[in-house]
Amino acid sequence: MSCASFAKINVLSPQWIGNNSFSSRRGGSSPLTATRRVSLPIRASSYSDELVLTAKTIASPGRGILAIDESNATCGKRLASIGLDNTEVNRQAYRQLLLTTPGLGEYISGSILFEETLYQSTTDGKKFVDLLREANIIPGIKVDKGLVPLPGSNNESWCQGLDGLASRSAEYYKQGARFAKWRTVVSIPSGPSALAVKEAAWGLARYAAISQDNGLVPIVEPEILLDGDHPIERTLEVAEKVWSEVFFYLAQNNVLFEGILLKPSMVTPGAEHKEKASPETIAKHTLTVLRRRVPPAVPGIMFLSGGQSEVEATLNLNAMNQSPNPWHVSFSYARALQNSVLKTWQGRPENVEAAQKSLLIRAKANSLAQLGRYSAEGENEEARKGMFVKGYTY
Fold first, then answer.
1. pLDDT for res 195
2. Least packed by Cβ within 10 Å: which of 14, 120, 136, 188?
3. Which one from 181, 263, 312, 379 is the annotated catalytic residue?
4. How far is 234 from 241, CA to CA, in rounded Å?
């Protein structure tokens, strides 16, 4: 059983509930082992109501998530694309541009931050977390420590960061974060191997349980990479397997489904496949997997864009919202919200207002897509350019 199943306890010593002793292993790579059987486990309920409310607030009609949780290295790549050095001052300036956009909260319900940003302030001394709250946007935090090679696999990866996650999550909560994000990936050209799928699912489940135990709504992100020349049917097959494993282990770890958000990739052909799928085809295959594998108790499906163009990501989301769904089907985009913003800004103070307008245009477009009312009429060519990079790392 997961430690998230029981009342909050001191993680450094054996625990006692009645006459039953437990050995607690937070953040480990294997299930918690009880030294005696417990007939009536005590649920960790102190955050349950708050978790459900936070998840429902993020999954509110016409709104989605702005992901600006790029690591410093990845943010540096973005800045380099417009000729800026990767310095804390430049990263702060860019994220300040995004988070001070007037009216952003009308279309954005949550923003995922990198740790540096969570503790940063604007140039006039206002904390970014306070700025977000005032805009009716819930602050979130990336908590994983990135991908590393998975021994014994077919050149695949696993996501590290469980060690110390409980204490870090508690500190993030104190700082004002109310949800978390953990991204792991599955590669279709690499198999994927059963080992990689199981490792991805187990890691996400352990992270989710630890997050909920510390007051953070976990965004569960099993990304199936776009890399490959496989047809859409192969992606569907892999997605079914991955999502099945993820929800099996979430249940094994007693994760509260009403207090999570799922951040999957859309079911598309491989980026190098000879035939491109229409938004209607992508919507059909993606919704098929959702209906087969995702419990309706999950309040929100916040799709990642994964290298699609800004317009593609919005059109595909719109197609999925042409009929009612058991969940709030929305977006959690990074590049698909930021690409036009960066190119408009160019690091120049005189372009800040125009860049913020670019962000609002993209945020509003995806808000309309969440409501099933988007049209690509009038979109410029820049927004139609794909952003897939083979072997892309974050």
1. 96
2. 14
3. 263
4. 11
